[in-house]
Amino acid sequence: LIIQENIFKARRIEEPQVTLEELSKNFNISRERVRQIEVRSFEKVQQHIRQFLKNKQRLNLIDRQSTEKDL
Asked: What is the rounded (10 degree) CA torsion for 6, 8, 11, 16?
């Protein structure tokens, strides 16, 4: 989990972006493995964002329904 977080931050958040080569040396894994971890981490972030937005939409719908009942 720590490696995933570090790779995600280094590849997607930090400026300048850390190279696959640098990360592969730091973690003693292949560049391809770094890339795979980066992709999987990004997919997890996207999944969490989608879930957050779905939950937010549900809450908005519930709020609207309760407001309409009050009228």
From this structure: -60
